[in-house]
Structures are given as C-alpha cells and as structure tokens.
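Dear support,

I submitted the protein below through the web form. The confirmation email said the job was done, but the results page showed an empty box. After a refresh the structure appeared. I'm attaching both so you can tell me whether what I see now is the final result or a partial one.
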Amino acid sequence: MRWIILSFILVLFPFQTASAAPQPPADKVQAYSHFVNGLDALESARFSEALSAFSDALKKNSSDPQFVLARGVTATLAEQFQLAAKDFKRLKRLAGMLREPVLWTYVMEAMSGIIIDKYHAPGGHMNHPPGDVPPVGLPGHIVQGNKEYSTEFASFIVYNLATPYQKTRISDKYISGKRPSKNDPEIRKALAKAGKWFANRNKTRPELAYFFYERVKKSYRERDYKKAFEHLVPVRAAYPNDADVHYYSGAVWLELGRSASARKELTIALTLNTQFAEAYALRALTCANLGDENRARKDFKLAQKLKPDFVNQLKKQFDKAIAENKMKKSVGALLTELENAARSKVALDTLTDLAVKVHKAAHANRLHYDEIYQDKLRVLADAVRANPKNPEGMVNLATYLIEESFLRGDSVEPRREEIGYRWQESENSELTRAEQLLNYALKLNPNYVRAIMQKAMVRARFKDTRTAEALAKKALAIAPNHPEALQMYAMYKAQRADNLNAQASGLRQDSCSSSTRTENRHDGVWEVTTTTCYPPTRGDLQQAAQLDAQAKILRRESFLAMKKALKVSKGTLIGHLLESTYYLWSGKPKKALPVLQKALKRWPDSLKVHDALVKYFQTVRHFKLTEEHKALRNQLIHTTADPMLRLSWGLIPRTEWDKAKEVLAKARNLDPLDARVPAYLGVVYQNEGDMESARAAFRTAIALEEARFRLDDHVDPKKRLWNRDPMDFGTALKANLLLADSLEKEGRPDEALAYYRANAVYAERTPPAQNRRAMFSAFFPDPEAPLTPIPLPKNAATLLAESPLKAGKILRDQGKKEDAIKLFLTSASFGRPVGYSIPNIVTWKKGEDNFSKFAKETPAEAYLELTKIYMEKGKFETAHNYFRAAIANYPSKNVQRQIVKLDRILSKKEEERYRKQYQQSSPQQYQPRHRHKYEQPVPPQPRNNSNNFVFPPPFGR
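What the results page shows now:
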C-alpha cells in the first residue's frame, strides 16, 4: 500500500517526493552485511577475516555467485589455493557467461599450478607431475576490459601479480635468471593492492548502498565528516539521482570547508525535492560563505517557512557568515586593484587574497542557471500543490520541463563536449516526468487541448511520430479554431522539422562526448571522466541528407497550419515567433530579423525570443552575431563569458590582436571571475611582444584560480587539501608553464623555477586515476598551432610531467645535479617505469587502454637526461636502464635524434667495459660483441576518434 501511495505522489509531484533512499536488500540483509564486512577486511589486506566473513555470507545465501567469487578471490590472495580452486570450479556452473570468474581462474591457476579447466592447461594436457606444472598462459583477451572490470584492473592482476608470482613456483628449467621469492616485498604489495582494488570495485554495487548509506548517517551524526564522505562515494555511484544522497553530499562538503561544491550538491537535492527545508538552510550557509547575500537570505527565508525549528539553530552562524563575507568595494574596483597588483612584484599569496575579495564581491550578483531552474520548478510545483484538481498547473509544470529539457550549456575549447549549466539525470527522464504530469492532467480533463498538444510534442521527442500526429489531430478536432491549439499545432510541426534538422546537423559534426564513470581502484573510488571524439561516417552523412529531406516535406505540409495560426495569433509572442519561422522556411531571412527585433523590444526578458534570435543568426551563418547574442541571452539565466571566449578562439589564430582584445574586454565585463579571460589576454600580449602585460595577465589568471580553490577548500591551510579533478587545475597549470617559459627565455631561471615548482602542488592533488584526463582547460588558443586538424589536448600526466622536467634542466645547468635528478625522476614517474614490459591492451571501449594513464614524450626526455647524468658519473649500467626506459616512453622526434647519438656513445662505453673485463681474465677468448643498433621507430599514429593517446608497440635496442 505504501508503494501505491508513493507512486501516486511520484506522478503528481515528480520533484517533491520524499527521496527513494537506499533500501535494505530483501531477505538478504544478514548475508550482505557479512559480505560488506568481508570487503572491509579485504580492503585492509586482512585476508583471514575476509575469508571468514565471505564464508558466513555463503552460509546465509550459498547460491550467490558474487559471494562465491569474493571468497575465491580472497582465497587466491591468501594463498589458500585448494579452497580457491573449489570456488572457481563451482563458478563455472554458477556464474554463466560472466567474465570475471574466468579472469580470476587464470590468475589462480598461474599462481598455484592447480589447473581446473583443461583448456587452460599448459601444452594442451593436464598430466603434469605435481609441483612441476609449466607456466600457465595468460591470454590477452581476458585482460581486455568490459562492463565487469576495467582493462587497467585486469592488466594489473595478470601482469603485476599473477605473472611474477608464477615465477616463484615454476622450476629452473622453465625460467632463466634468478627466481623471485613469494615473500618479495613487491609481490606482497601486489597481493594487498589487488585485494583493495577488488573490494573497492564491489563496494559500488547497488545492493550494498543501503549499508554504506547507514554508515553515512552514523558518521555524520558523530561529526566524522571524512568518514561520511568516504562512505558516500559508493552510495552516489548507486543512487545518482536521490535527493537525500545529494543533501548529505552537500552537508559533508560544507562541514569540510568546500562551500562551492556543497552549493552545487544542495541545488541538485532541491531540484529533486523542492520542499527540502534542511537543504535550503544549508545552501543559505554556503551562499553566505561565498559572499552571495541575496541568494543566502532568500534560501534562509524559505527554510524558515518550511521548518523554523531547524533553521533557528543556524541563525547565529548564518548572520556571522553574512557579516564576514560582505564586500564593501565593487567588483570592478577590486578587479582593477588585482590587475594593477599583478603588474608589480607582489607575492602570489597577496594576489590570491585580493582575488578572494573579487570572487566574494562578484558572487553577490552572479546568476546560476541551476538555481534559477530549481526556483522555477518550486514555484510551478507550489501552484500544483495549492490546487491539485486543476490541470492547468500540471500542464504549466510539464511545459516548463519539456521546454528546458534541452540542456543549456556551452563549451569554449575546440573538440570539447558541451558543459551543462545545470545537473540533469537525462533528457528522457525529464520528458517522462512531464508526460506523467500530462497523463494525470488528461485524467482530470480528457479534452484539455494544451495537455494533448504538449503530450504530442513529448511523443515527437521520443520519435513516436504516429502517436504524436494522432494527438495533434485530436487537439485540432476538439478545437479547430482555437488560437492556442492552432499555435501549438504549428509549433509542433516546427519542432518536428527542427528536430530533424538538428539531428542532421549533429550527424555532420565531429561527435565529442564525455562520460564519467566510477573508477574503483586499489587507492580508492574515483569519478573518472573519459572524452571521445569521432568524425561523421559516410552513413551519417547519408542519414543527415535524408533527415533534411524529411524536414523539408514537413515544412511544406505545415505552411497551411502556420498561415492559419498566424491569422489568429497576430500580435502575440507566439505569433511573432511563428511569423519569423515562416519567413525562414520561405527562404526570406531578411524579413524574419525585423519581426524578431520587434518581439525582443516588446518582450526583452523572453528566453524564447532570445533563443529564436540565436537560431536565426546560426541559420544565416553569422558567427560573430551568434556568439554576441548568446552572451546577451545568457545574462538572463547564467553568468558566463563562454560565447566571447569562443569568439576569441577564432580571432587569436588569425593574429587579429586588436579585435581579440576588444572581445576579451567584453568577456571580462560578463564574467570577471573567469580566469581564462586574462589567460587568453596574456597569449595576445605575448604574441604582440608586450611581455610585461602578458605576465601580469597570467598572474591575474593564476590568482583568480587560486582564490576559487581557496573558497572551495579547507579554511585551515595547515590541513591537507582535497584531491581534485585535474581539469580544475588546467588553466593555472598552463599559465604557470607559460610564465616560467617566458622568464627562462629572458635569462631569469630562478624566477622561472618558482613557477615550475608551483605546479608541483597540483600534481600532488591529482588522483592517480585521473592521470588520463584530457586537459581541455589547459588548451589555450595558440597562433602557431595548425588550424586543421585541431591538436588533441594533452592528458593530465603529460602536463604534470612537464614542470619537473623543465625545473630539473634549470638545476642541471646551475650545477645542482643531485637536485635535478630528483626532479627528473618525478617527471619520469608519470611515464612507463624502468623495465616496464606489460603489453598494451586496448579495451572494448574506444579510447581506453591500460597505458592511457601514462604521460607521452615528456618522461622520455626525463629518462634521457638521467641517462646523460649517470653516464657522466660512469654508472653505465644505471644509464643503460634509463636509456631503455627513454626508448619505451614514446620520445618526440627531437628526443629520438638525441637517442640515436647516445646509442652510439653508450654502445662504445659498453664495448670498452666488456673488452677490459675479458682482457683481464682471458684475453685470448675475447671477441667483439654484436651491437644491436637502435632503430628509430615509426611515430605513433593518433586515432581520429579519440582524445586519449594511442601508444605504439614497444621498441628498443
């Protein structure tokens, strides 16, 4: 009965529900409780405790494959191979087509020599004597990732665990050289790491969310906010659209000093439940901390209305935050003060203090579309709640959901996906909620024309054209001369044609998309974003032509409906929009513009009019006016300089410096907090030769970014700062590199060194799982870069490795070689390690492999520098190891030329050492060694369909 009532409420108020919080798994609470305890023990490498817990779970539910797999994996890592073999034998029948049991079966067989699958047997037969089983082959296809596990995870347990462990058990006739011991520290670390990685992967299972959610609430009550945050990660992965989960995320971030992150999370919670009093109260506090007094007081008032007892407890804290963060000076004055200080030799900390004031002053009048969207939902939902039997309120709410389901957003850098201005579960989910409201409205009034037409539009968006057409005809049959019905019918036809044209346009463009997934690794659970791009295929272009042809037919059919609608809607907002659309369809765009300008004059705050003008300028292909009007439209809903920044991308490569500076000045006025504005301006000044202005601009950009981090981090700077997505650091990273590079060229190495070292902080705060991230935010417009093809952005590892390499070169030139070695090793650590012989495995997903986390080219240069230093020291064996690592890290063409020269020198030194050794012991047996020449490799060919690096096969001497 409870669920029937809840489903009724979900239909009526899809954004007002009490959240469907994680529920305990039916009839399996005790079993899963033991399973979670086992994962905790496995994460800490307490294998015996984990085995006991998983065995208890199996006693409660003996037929669950994941319990059997977990015990089999734990038994393997605990080196209890007989028990592991028993579980994996059972999984062959129990797990069906799952691949992970097969992966771990191979690993167990390699480690133990116990063969449970005759097809895995070495040499094709299983009759090997006990204790003398040859090496078990580990096929590459099982390393390829799938939906069950990632390529990197499988690569680690196969090549870093199973392969070296197997060498400890096989006899000398199968292996040359020294055999490792089972107690080797690296093997013991690999066992612990594999267990932790497996545990973290399994913690994100939806059925376990309930247990971690209970831990979140307990930790939050006990004010252990770091623990609460750790437990939230798997819950968020399982319940990404739950209001309570987002509320706790925001509450935890607020307590940990991350107000900006808390504000976003609380807004999502309020979007899902617009009556969430506690979320309003906490968002009021976050806004007060950021200097946004207007939003803070508005939210506090709403919270007091909904739950006064809870809110009154926060009154003192709220008033204190408002007083402390209120700025007396204007944004313009503070920004000018910051820019003037950046021209002087003021320390960066002082500049950051000024930038914090700029941020707080700007936040007072800053627009956030996600909050505007949530406000509108609350107002419309309140109207429904006030009169639940009137279909008009439901249709108004549904209409807003439909109109705004196209996620508004923008992007600046080429190849980058569009970044939304608000959170969205999915477009289809919002359309589905709108359709639920419309269905309920039609139950109240089956002949309500607006509800019928809006449902037709939803059906058209779902590509159910037959139902959509039937609904539209039904509406006209009910009210053939009804002005609103005619208007909506004409708009319906226009929408269908526009949808087809939009699909056609999308098919003709390079398709770029980013997907964020939960990366469950040995060092934690991370949210990892992967970006892929692919050009249109011939089939895409043919399909686009067909869609355009269909749209053309639709427009012809809709002219009659539009003419009739124009007669009854003359002078109205919809009438102006229909008239402009009519002229565009008729091939008379010059007549459409005056109509839209007249509409803009009468309805200056109408998003529909602004959207129509943007679409008009796109249709006539006027890029500059399109971007300028996008900027004008965005001022109504969201503070952003993206359109002006994108306009500057077209001017800077053409070296139109004056126009670029004019556009960037407009961008500065639109969004004084966007650090990309002074950063791009620095690029312009640098190319004009005005290095003083360029450095001031770069310093301003760095200060604005540092202030943004400070407002979203610990209040106490002595505490350890939070790890972040490296995209957050991209602009500051690149600005530091450009500053240091310019100072180094002018012969000021000590000043350059300070900026290179500043980037070390960002490297420390970047999670290892994010090293593969495509760094679009570090992709500044470059007049020297080719216009086509657009260069791919570097991954985070490559960008982070650049600073220590260049800093090491400065110290090397200053004679501080020991310090330089440390920095070269730091840079090299982002690449493939010395002796790294793991094969490159590409996953079934495009652009993902087990090598994408490594830096490209930069570590090769760092290894080469280490080779030179150790050759000077006379340590040729060490130099040789670093030399091979330089070859394996995909060197640039310049480094390849240096490698060829060093190869000759190093080979001569090796030959001399070899000759001396034999001349002293047995000179008569000496023969010159055959020298394997280093061959310059074919450079890797980048894939057009991915922003991740594609590595070639390894090569060497």
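Response: this is the final, complete result; the empty box was a page-load delay. DSSP finds 40 helices and four strands in the chain.
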